Amino acid sequence: LPYVPRVPAVALLGKVTATTFALERPCCIFDRHANATDAVWLAVAFANASATFRNPSSRADVPPYKQLPSAHSYMTLETAVAAFACSAPSPAVLRVGGDTACRDQGRHDPCNGPLPSPGPYRVKFLLMGCHGPKAETQWSDPILLRRAVSLGTTDPVPTRHGSAVVVITSILAILGTVLSTAVLGALGAKLWGSLCHRDLETSAFTHRSYRTHHIPPALPQPLPLSCDCSPPGLGCFALRPPASCHGN
After folding, report:
1. Helical (H) or strand (E) element with 229
2. What is the pTM of this model?
3. In which domain, by residue range, is 50 found?
4. What mean pLDDT do residues 171-175 have?
5. DSSP of 47-89, one letter per residue?
6. How many Å apart are CA 164 and CA 167, to the nearest integer?
7. Alpha-carbon distance 48 to 38, whole Å?
8. Among 9, 98, 128, 142, which one is least packed by beta carbons within 10 Å?
9. Lowest mean pLDDT among 13-17, 82-86, 129-133, 195-199
10. Number of domains in the chain
11. Measured between alpha carbons, how far is 166 from 196 in angstroms, rounded to an integer?
């Protein structure tokens, strides 16, 4: 068949990962060649081993997933041909390598386990009936999976940034310094004002006390002169130092 399998051209989440990749569903490809009892398989092989792949003569000869490291190919995704009919409501894409359980269980039936390496891989669809293969598509172009980044491959030298990044970083640093200075200045002014206000109150209290203690004592007022003249012969008594007394 002239059909060539391919990864979807549209944007798709997880279209190609480190262990899986998506394929477009081959709709309306096998209708003229299939019976209702036929099945469609997907053959997966390393790109450099696709030329030596041989179609199995029956289902019993299908290469299993666990032989991929040694045989460099396997077959998976056994699906009734009706799922690929023009009117079938099948999903628009198929995912290769999406079944993690079958790898852990070590089952011998067709397994769609995670792909063990980035590849590249090539795939083709194979229509099989009760007596063996009936039709097949072309091999796909090589499909390379994503590579996981290991800690050992991390570059210890920091990546050099462009001049624009350096300028932006410098401006942000200057703005941060100015803002910090303004905040500290405001706090310092407030603290200084509080201390000055407290010192003024203390100084005023001290100044008032100082003036109070140095007020000179009130001097005694001079007593009015008074003279009481006694009968003649007894003398004169005065409340202040003796002064002249009338009649003496």
Report:
1. strand 227-229
2. 0.59
3. 21-136
4. 77
5. GGGGGG----SSGGGPPPGGGHHHHSEEEEEEEEGGGGSTT--
6. 5
7. 29
8. 9
9. 195-199
10. 1
11. 45
